[in-house]
């Protein structure tokens, strides 16, 4: 009886190569997938939100023609979007004038976004970016039951760790950049008692960068409000300096502050310097996420 050879044993080299070819080609999609691609979106949604943004910035209902001028879109195209927006309540049309404005659902969206905003979550990536780019320790501070309190911190791998200031540390109003920031923006009823006590405690040991009278405190506050930044040298830790920028909510009230701290001579603490302006810009970025419009 003749034994049949397997098909694999009778294939020629060329046939084997041909059989293997599909396997090699199957790798191509995975290689292409490794190349980063721009994420695709829906252009009509982006156009629609351009219309909504024109309504947001208008300050009140406006005519269709004015929406067209602000968006650069044809009136006919805008009308289709407005019909759909009205159907879901994002836009409303004034029955008397025919003008268009934001509708009740837009209000509900805004309120929901405000309720879901968390300054801690919003600040963490910004602080990591600051610590990496500037090379110094960055703190997030809020107003707690006992005053300005550190609630989060990120150390830079390039700087000396500041072990003296941990999460949960409550800082003074006059001798810390974080405290000075809150002092400049909070109602006086929350800070007057602490300021009086701190002035009494420092009267016997004045420092160059520490106010020693109510008049000097007021001058310091005016400077912070003018520049949008607070600074403190030597008063909190010897040979250290710090800069602090406020974070505001949608009502314009200060809810937190981002503070950067480092050794004098290493940290550029000039109020008009690159470090200070970068810090201020990043704090503003978080404020805008919270709904602040400045």
Structure description:
By secondary structure, the protein is an alpha+beta fold. Helix content is 49%, strand content 15%. It is built from 12 helices and 7 strands. The protein has helices spanning 7-10, 13-25, 28-33, 43-58, 64-71, 75-88, 104-116, 119-134, 177-185, 188-202, 214-227, 274-289, and strands at 91-93, 100-102, 137-144, 147-154, 230-233, 240-248, 254-263. The strands form 2 sheets. It has a 5-stranded antiparallel β-sheet with strand order 4-3-7-6-5, with helices on both faces. It has a two-stranded antiparallel sheet with strand order 1-2. A hairpin with a 5-residue loop joins strand 6 and strand 7. Helix 8 runs antiparallel to helix 12. The protein is elongated, with a radius of gyration of 30 Å. It starts with 6 loop residues before the first helix and ends in a 5-residue tail after the last helix. The relative contact order is 0.09.
For the secondary structure, the number of strands is 7
Separate helix tally? 12
Structural class: alpha+beta
Strand order of the largest sheet: 4-3-7-6-5
The backbone outline, from C-alpha atoms, is: elongated
Q: State the end-to-end distance.
A: 95 Å
Query: Helix fraction?
Result: 40-55%
Unreliable residue stretches: 1-36
Brief summary:
The chain has 294 residues and is α+β, with helices and mostly antiparallel strands. It has twelve helices and seven strands.
